[in-house]
Fold each of these.
Amino acid sequence: MLPIEDVVRLGFIGVSQGCAYGLIALGFVLIYKATEVVNFAHGEFMMFGGFAVLTFSEGFGLGFWPGLIVACLAMGTAGYLVDSLIMRRIIGQSQASIFILTVAFGFILRSAAGMIWGWSPLSLDTPFDGETTLAGVTLGTDRLAIIATTAVLCTALYMFFGRSRTGIAMQASSQNQLAAYYMGIPVRRLVSLVWAIAAIIATVAGAVMAPVTQLETNVGFIGIKALAGAIVGGFGSIPGTLLGCMLIGVIEPFADYFFPAIKGVSAYIVMLVVLFIRPEGLIVQTYRKKV
Amino acid sequence: MSSLVVENLSIEFGGVHAVDEVSFAVEPGETFAIIGPNGAGKSTIFNLISRIYEPTNGSMHYGERDLLDVPAHKVIDLGIARTFQNIDLFEQATVLQNLLVGRHRRMSRNLFRDFLFIAGARAREREHRRKVEDIIDLMEIAHYRDQKIADLPYGARKNVELARALCSEPSLLLLDEPASGLNQEETDDVSFWLDDIKHDLGVTIVMVEHDMGLVGRVADRVMAINDGKLLAIGTPDEVRNDPAVQQAYLGTAA
Amino acid sequence: MQTVFKTSYDQDINLLTKTGEYIRVSIVILMMLAAPLFVDVYYLGELGLLLVYVIAGIGLMILTGFTGQVSFGHAAFLGIGAYSHSILMTAGLPFPVSVVLTVALTGIIGMLLGRSASKMHGFYLAVATLAFLIIIETIIGEWTDMTGGYAGYAVPELEMFGFYFAEVWHQYYLYLGFALFVIWGAANLLRSPTGRSFLAVRDSELSARSLGINVEWIKIQSFGISAAITGLAGVLLAHYLAYLSPETFGVLESLKLLLMIVVGGLGSIAGAIFGAIFVSLLPVAISILRDFLPGVVGEQAGLEPMLFGLIIVIFVIFEPEGINGRWKKLLHFFETFPYYRKSSFVRQKSYLKTERMR
């Protein structure tokens, strides 16, 4: 048996990892709900966002927080443009084409990042170094920061979609684009805005993940695990997504500990098992097609 | 020939009774129309008969067969074919391919035999092709034969969808708004075809339709429903003059 | 457009109808047959690899292009095919037996995956197949006793009834034979009830079901035949590579297959062939391009994936029907010269087809 301290330590790592997956998965779900597109390059958005923070905060010497804000603005603009210049033009094409298109974005971003920042890992100075002792347990500040960021961002998004005019309009257009359009809601602009928000969340995720993973071109593959978590949870709803990501995050360190041979694969096994038993994920969102 | 008997059919979507205790029977060879305002549950009845939805209550029989024992893809084996309200064709395939899929029920299919195209594959294709060609003549869609559905105008798509349903040689045809979106001339064509289908092919027709002119011309009997509940069944004239039906269409007159 | 006057139903059943088609296909086949006479050994080997990708591309095309099920995991079948064939050959089985067993094995695994995937749709399926691939890759890597793990596995020599396919052109003809067989088979599928059922499931599951098609079973069959053909490609790839390692059959290989059929043109056999030619030529083109670009750009390691990505973006936006679509337009231009009008191929406006309410 595992000593209790190790259980707590692995559990804590799991929770923070789950939060990280959840943070990334948020971007997938937002874009999916708005457009039914799964942006397979979202992990690369995160990777690129992390590098952007490095450039603005250290390259331009703005410091971490101002650098983060500028990077968010830049990436948000990029996200907006990706939708309004590219995604908008391919509506209605076959799924395979759209999937491969977003995968292609990933290729481009990864190569671009490699060309700009090089292929070896870089580190980002964040205010989250060192360790914090909470209730007698010593925990990594970087991982605490991930948990806190996820909590803050989720609350913010919740408020945004529940309270603000723009947020409510976004919800409306995701439920029925045509009706929203007839109501005078600028659906297309809102969809682009959703892409911008997703890109901003990705940038924040990239920044808080940097102390744990370092900045590296291949970090984007985490996106696929986040996607697996979102699918386990049921994808349609944000609480479901977070639950699924948390599940995968917590299972992972234990699975890696007990079955080192299949290190890193447990998330996918969990996902396939869940899909086999419940093809719609743990929390089912029912929709009915009108025929 | 079998008759369609529906008893106490009900379905609930999240507490809403989309269809509520509806009973009716369609006799072989007749043309039966279902009318009602939007959202009355007309298409839902079709979707229940074709087993896309599972009813919460009630029974449906076609001849001897209990429809509730039949999975959706076997409904057509009983001879029940249908069209859809929003035209549901195979968009990226040609008209000919669509119609040949309509023959599916009558075709034997085997992956390996088809891969190697052996054991009389050509002869079978020819034979089914002949059948399809008869329907093409009947529906006058010969000039569209090799076109992709995606390139067809709306009216032609409607005809192709009807033709596709006919290719299965059904005994009962469920038509969901056969005249919606068509102009007067095209609607007249539809009424002739429905006549041909009924008399020449001997097919029983159940249709959902808004165009009362068409219903009056082709239907032997009409059923009116509103809010999922049955209002009246009878000849077109009887139903038209029914006070409950008039109220449902004109709103509650004070 | 060249009008074909139809005098018999066979004209629609035959694989080739127009005179031009006959001539073009005959020329291509003759050139492929004659290739060993005038192509040097290195390029003949590359041509063999191209044929392997044609086979794999058709395998994936049947699933994704015809049946509409997107798979991100087809490299797994390539890997399973390559490894199981090599292992069976090492165990002393003759080549034909090993090929048949391997194809059957990949087909069955494909059907099992299809069985669990038949209830999913859209991107669930894509991600599930991706997860399947990652798991298979890990298993190949970790099952050291069987596969040699990350150290690799030497593929036995290609030998049939005492005859060694020692020369490159021996192998080339073997590959060509298999490729022609697979192309012919896939074309047969398309003109028979099974192929039409695939198309029906791709375009509307609802209609397909109402016309008597057992949608789940069709998906399982499509997965099966697709995996079996890809497994066959894996067998041939094993002999081309002569040495297998798990990384060969990773996510990138899968994406390459998908890229192939999208760029080639989804939904047609010609698309798979064009796509295979495209991915085979691209690295060559890129290496030539490198020489022309200024050193700083040309020497970048990321140039190849970058161009891959850009080309996909350009194709998806400007020519969704892929190279095959371009090719058809070009043919049309020459057939109707000088009457070609741009409007002959105006794209219909496309709309988002929601999958939410399935």
Note: Residues 287-291 of chain A have pLDDT under 50 and may be disordered.
Amino acid sequence: MTSTSSAASIGGHERGFAATHRSDKWWVGPVLTAAGLTLFFGYLTVRAFQGTWLWANPYVSPTGAPPLFTPTSGYAGAIPVSHAWLGAFPSWWPKFIPQSPAFFFPGLAIAFRFTCYYYRKAYYRAFAASPPACAVAGAPLKYRGETALLLFQNLHRYALYGALFLLVCLWYEAFAAFFKNGKFGIGVGTLVMVMNATLLSGYTFGCHSWRHLIGGKLNCFSCDGASKFRLTIWKKSTWYNQRHMLFAWLSLFWVAFTDFYVMMVSRGVITDLNTW
Amino acid sequence: MATRTFRVWRGDKDGGKFVEYTVETQPGMVVLDGIHRIQAEHAGDLAVRWNCKAGKCGSCSMEINGKPRLSCMTRLNTFEPGETITVQPLKTFPLIKDLVTDVSWNYEQNKRIPPLKPRPREADGNHRMMQEDVDRVQEFRKCIECFLCQDVCHVLRDHGKHDQFVGPRFMIRLAQLEMHPLDTEDRIPKIRKEFGSGWCNITRCCTEVCPEHIGITDNGIIPIKERVVDRYYDPIAWFFKKVFGGSKT
């Protein structure tokens, strides 16, 4: 038994933005991605510009860590001057720019995530609709891929170097959170900060550039002892790389949560359970 | 007896239309079985390319409910009962008739790729490779050349950059050769310029549709892009190479 339907374009492939014959909810992925990225990066951006409630002794928010400078007045819950690498913000700091330590080292994390191979997929799909989903027509814009303006994405490995530095600093801050006024102890905030550094490590060591640099660039893994060692860490990195998206989201969520927790403790809204 | 309605595109490069066919189905049937039943009972002139019916020859690629898939590996019970199944030819390649497209462009790309250039044989006349050196490239040899990745790649599918980007299937062919422990050929300049690695924006649809579950993006394209970065976009690597020298390792 046959019946016919109306004429269609060649192969039945319609043209125009979001044209597809997919019958599943293909738009759910990009919508959730856009919502998640907007929520978490939006929150962290607001917190970076606030520059307040970044410190709850001995906890420091990842939004302000490691602090190069810290404000001396006008910012409640500011990181102590003694904890900042170079002390107070210099007098010449422009008045129209908030005195937020987030504008220095924590900015390295932005560069790392922005050029990340996973996040590229996420925001190319969710925000640029290039394409919004597989086999769904993208936005009708001139496409240059990563050959022109987006050539800078090739500098991802330099963002990685910055992220590795930041990771060392965040581990230092996490261990420092075991000591309050020189006395060893542990609090919920300590665990939150250790988890933050752990998830960021999982994300960083699954980085595609890291995986390439530590061993992927070799063609001979068996040639010498160094190559065999690099094969071992390349395999470990591959495990994390296969879960790069998972660690990208978990670590992003936990950075925001860590900041939120420190802010709440710093403001006295919640009481940190601890052994001190 | 259960039935299933298929909405099949019929036509050629000059035009065509969707035609609906309803056929009886049995448990275990795949979309290609339905197409064959349509051929047998309703439309003997329906053109479809197929061969092994086991997901290994890569011939029966088509778009099923908008997704590039192998019709021989798409079971009917994965769709809702009563759901009409829309079947179309691949979008990225020129249409010949009904569900058959001309995929010869892919074979032309393959010819452009410099072949393996092995290093000299060892003193006993043999080539030797260690298993850990070939494990990585063996993944790429699973490719059955169904060209679903080429079809779904938006650089080719939506933007028609056939003259500038070789497509994901041949990016992993290039990765396979570049990572080969015996190879001495340098393809990096061509990968950047002629084969267009920069056109890929890592949206991973090629990986999502691969019926062999090859890590096209993570294990093939990105490592190749990183090798291009080594050569052209990393001033520190460039400096070390100038000072200490460098060769294909």
Note: Chain A touches chain B through 55 residues (CB under 8 Å).
Amino acid sequence: MYRGREGQWAFLLHRISGVAIALYLLLHVLDISLVMLGPDGPFDAFLAFYHNWPFRIGLLMVIAAVVYHALNGLRIILMDFTTWGVKIQRQLWYGVLVLTTLIGIPVLWVVVPQILAGV
Amino acid sequence: MASARPRTYAEAREVSTTNFELAWWVFMRVSGLILVFLVFGHLWVNNILVDPADIDYAYVVNRLAQPGVRIYNTFLLFFAMLHGVNGLRYSIEDYTKRASRRFWYKVILYTVSAIIFVLGTMTLWAFTYEEMGAAVRAIGVTP
């Protein structure tokens, strides 16, 4: 890794989360489109399979990726369209990490009991 | 292509003939801002208000019967697909060194994405293959 400090970690995480979300999106649209095969089609069985806890934890990671990607995207917009954004990009990135955690805690509070109820 | 590959900003500027990449650069920021609201709303409804484990065929039928949900999801699908596929394109451009491989990866990406985009739009607006068939016949195209 090049010694790019925070800015480069922000970029790398943005890339990884972005690719993960995009691949999830393609899969998600594809599996929802299975409803077109009707109530007797494979839709319910397929979704029941997705409701197993390993996939629910995977879904939690997708949510975390979305929250980080969204907040860091806002940081990029500030960096590109304001005169002061680049100057404080490092502080903004720590703000992104703190906000991601702050949003993550109540999400876990709701979702973890959902997952445990299904185990 | 390989022989005249631009090495500096000035060389790249000379090779470039369109503002294609600038347009995508702007699109990523505008669609990104819109998607923050659309995606957070989507996650709020389907992951927080509703336990995803309760989502089944009946739930999806009920939701997609509402015109507002259809319109919301149409915007979500449109912006998310363009933003996501363009992001995947950036990754291909950045990490695939051979131009021929880069080309074929993009052909595969665009083909798969186009099929999935059409399937998603059909799900939102036709819902079943029967409805889609009826709609296609209604406009006078016989398959």
Note: Chain A has four helices and no strands.
